[in-house]
Design brief:
ten-stranded mixed sheet, alpha/beta
Length: 473
């Protein structure tokens, strides 16, 4: 899968100077609302990109213009109304403040870091650009590269060009085309052949302005290597709408192992769109976890391509919707090669007038014999409100020697269980919390990251607590 870097990257310093993007004066065309071809060209020029990347951006913009905006008449969007979404409402670029150390980051970001998983490398994207990065010197000595995408373009252009847009191409869909045309910031992780990164690597996307953020994540894990990568999204509370539109490309080489976590916890003013696609080679393993807790509306595509014999994909999902949130997940387990395995488990809780959509497909291509694939979606409705869950698990099998299963369940909290707990002296609020923890336990028990599990427990508790305070009022 590709080639190794010819030389080790320079050591990263914990304190880094502001990037040249931060030091340059931002053109006025990038500060005004709306995106057009002039904006796309100005963004590419501002970032001093090579010609091939500018052409990619413009090709993506043309694809965006050709594609109609999805409507409720489109099968893939029939439950998610985005008729009010307009890119004209958002500025394409917002610079990040100058930061030279972790202590200079916003207090909210420092809190996220303190409460998160221990990490061996950290990258913080503040609004449209990377504000801070840190990589343990030992990782750098072993050839691990973790930096923002444009620094990677400067230092390892051939490697980035080989993989960028390979899994989420410019014309994948309407929102992917927009992301490819106007992306800014982003992260690049390269793990050389045979390197085992024992402590997770982490990035934070922090938004505290009314505007847009369009990050890309590019991860390349070479043969026999192993790493855990955590992508976290969070923002400051604001009443005016903001827009997040990202793409994630995950390449896992022969015999390699990648654990990828996406933790989306935007405030309620954010509209979130993201596409996550992975490519696994022979005997490679990818474990993905997609957590959706925040935003007003969230649409996430998660696709695993099992392209070689022995490849393995575990796809976990956890979501909790309340008030009038819409959380929409579309998944694909694409079995292209024989003798591959995939296992998907997505679980969600809902209350109030929220809406959750799960649409999953196991696709077995011709010749992919001995496929072993499972898909499960379960939803738990809290209270007697108007929450609504849509679950659409599907199979598309074009081989005759496979083992595949799929299923879904949706139901309310069992009042008998609550009564039993309350009869033991447990208040209803605590009883319901225990039931929800137990429901999500099937997912969280598969997460070998203590800090992440503790953060999820706090977030779930906050969701449940908010619901009881509202009902009490």
């Amino acid at each position: 899968m590709g080639r190794a870097l010819s030389e080790s990257p320079p050591l990263f310093r914990e304190k880094r100077k502001a990037s040249y993007m931060q030091q340059k004066e931002v053109p006025e065309v990038l500060r005004s609302k709306g995106i057009n071809p002039e904006v796309v060209e100005a963004l590419s020029d501002f970032k001093r990109e090579p010609g091939w990347l500018k052409e990619k951006r413009l090709h993506a913009w043309r694809a965006f213009e050709r594609m109609p905006m999805p409507t409720l008449r489109d099968e893939a969007w029939r439950y998610t109304d985005i008729s009010d979404v307009s890119i004209e409402d958002f500025a394409p670029y917002t610079p990040s403040p100058d930061v030279t150390s972790e202590e200079d980051l916003p207090e909210a970001v420092q809190t996220l870091i303190r409460e998160g998983e221990e990490n061996s490398a950290l990258l913080v994207q503040h609004n449209s650009e990377t504000a801070f990065s840190r990589v343990d010197e030992e990782l750098a000595r072993r050839g691990v590269v973790f930096t923002d995408l444009h620094t990677a373009l400067e230092e390892h252009e051939d490697l980035v060009r080989e993989y960028l847009f390979g899994l989420v191409p410019e014309d994948y869909d309407k929102f992917a085309a927009l992301s490819a045309a106007a992306f800014s910031g982003g992260s690049f992780l390269y793990v050389p052949r045979g390197v085992d990164v024992e402590v997770p690597i982490q990035s934070y996307r922090w938004l505290d302005v009314v505007g847009s953020i369009m990050p890309r994540t590019l991860v390349v894990v070479e043969e026999g290597a192993s790493v855990t990568y955590i992508d976290e999204y969070a923002s400051a509370d604001d009443e005016d709408p903001a827009f997040s539109n990202g793409a994630v490309e995950l390449y896992v080489g022969e015999g390699a192992n990648l654990r990828y976590v996406s933790l989306q916890n935007w405030e309620r003013n954010v509209l979130h769109f993201n596409t996550i696609r992975s490519f696994t080679e022979k005997d490679a393993t990818i474990n993905s976890l997609v957590v959706s807790l925040g935003s007003q509306l969230s649409r996430t595509n998660v696709e695993a391509g099992l392209t070689a014999s022995g490849s393995d994909s575990e796809m976990l999902g956890l979501y909790f919707a309340d008030t009038e949130q819409v959380l929409d997940h579309h998944t694909l387990q694409d079995h292209i090669a024989p003798n591959a395995h995939s296992d998907l488990l997505y679980k969600g809780a809902l209350r109030d007038e929220s809406l959750a959509i799960f649409s999953g497909l196991i696709r077995v291509e011709p010749g992919a014999q001995k496929t072993d694939a499972y898909q499960t979606n379960r939803n738990l409705i809290l209270g007697t409100n108007d929450a609504f869950a849509v679950s659409l698990p599907r199979l598309e099998i074009q081989a005759d020697d496979v083992r595949c299963s799929h299923g879904s369940t949706t139901g309310q909290v069992d009042e008998v269980e609550l009564f039993y707990l309350m009869s033991r002296g447990i208040p209803r609020r605590e009883a319901e919390k225990l039931v929800v923890y137990g429901f999500f336990g099937e997912v969280t028990s598969r997460i070998p990251l203590r800090g992440l599990k503790e953060k999820l427990d706090r977030a779930i508790e906050g969701k449940i607590g908010l619901g009881f305070e509202e009902r009490a009022a």
